[in-house]
Amino acid sequence: MDKKTRQNLLLIACGVAMFAAVTNLNIIKEFLVWLGGLLLPVLAGLVLAFVLSVPMNGIRCGLERLFAKAKKKPGNGALNALSLVLTYLCLVLVIALVGLVAVPEIVNSVKSISTTVKEKWPEWMALLRSWNVDTDAINSAVDQALAGLDFGKLLQSALSGAGSVLGSAVDVATTTISGVTTAVFTIIIGSYVLLDKDDLKRQSKMLIYAHLNRRHADRFCQVCSLIQNTFTRFLSGQCMEAVILGLLMFIAFSLFRLPYAGVVAMLTAILAFVPYIGAFTACFVGAVLTLIGQPSKLILCILVYQGVQFIENQFIYPRVVGSSVGLPPLWTLAAALLGGKLFGILGMIFFIPLVAVIYSLVRDNTKSRLKNRGLDPNDPSAGPVEEHPVFHPHQK
């Protein structure tokens, strides 16, 4: 069978497969959902390993320098194991710090907000009535909402529907056990990947170079290296920037005696991973909380927040993160919006380095094509690049 016949048969087979897929979309969707549920621990473990490899590599570099000074050189397996243990310890310490420091502050702030709303509610209603606003509808809506929280009625409803409650409890327990099992297997798989990452890297290269020609294999490894470097720079830079920005916001709010410093600082640190939108959202929430607690300090809250944000953008962000992903602001915002629309907060975070990788590949490919055509990459409309002749002294 000649090459042209094989190409025609392959084209026909692809057409038949596409037609079958289009006419059976529901079956394919159910199969993909089933396959995704089956492979969820594996996929989640790979994602966990990819994320934890960033701090683990930093810890390993520090250990290598430490052992070099001590003139001791442990094996790669021992270094990976020690780095992984220290990475998990750091993660546990961060979670414990958030639970011991941030959570009580958030709980106290929520209680303070509730107390303030109860105290200020008559004043707000009087202010609205002075503006000729009908407050009866607002009060009735609030009363209905509070009546729905009557614990006596909730208990009676729960007792009358004991069977459904029991079924719901069983469903919740089953879901919880399934979630815990998935989480345990995710951690185990991610840990094994991190411990054996050197061997996995070597085996992956063997497979790539065994099934692809040298040019395509080099290109594939180059793209993988670009993805790893981009995600590493983005995650490490954004984590450090989030911590610094949260601390600065907490210190500034505390110095100016603004309310809810802990809540605003925590919210600012979390939303620092979302460019542009995160800063605006945290500032808006901080302003609303200040308006509820101490309305006279609303302008001061906005000025302090924007001042800290300006200092961070001008002096800290360029040094800590800089152009870590090399993505222009327009594409950064588009990546955040698209990722948030598709996958929520995680999509907003991970779509930025993903789009940065695509942007870098398209940019390099475009420049290479323009150079091959003899055009200037900076100004292709100027026409082919003219090569100036070399002047020789003896040439007239």
Termini gap: 63 Å
Average pLDDT figure: 78
Alpha carbon gyration radius: 29 Å
Unreliable segments of 5+ consecutive residues? 387-396
Helix-strand string? HHHHHHHHHHHHH
Sheet/helix structural class: mainly alpha
β-strand amount:
under 5%
How is the biggest beta sheet arranged? none
Shape: globular
Which oligomeric state applies?
Answer: single chain
Total DSSP E strands? 0
Number of helices: 13
- Roughly how much helix do the residues carry, as a percent range? over 70%
Keywords:
396 residues; 13 helices; globular
Protein described:
The longest helix has 55 residues, at 76-130. The termini are far apart. The chain has a domain at 212-373. Helix content is 83%, strand content 0%. The chain has 13 helices and no strands. The model is unreliable at 387-396 (pLDDT under 50). The chain has helices at residues 3-23, 25-38, 40-69, 76-130, 136-147, 151-160, 162-195, 197-211, 214-255, 261-271, 277-293, 298-320, 329-372. The chain is mostly helical.
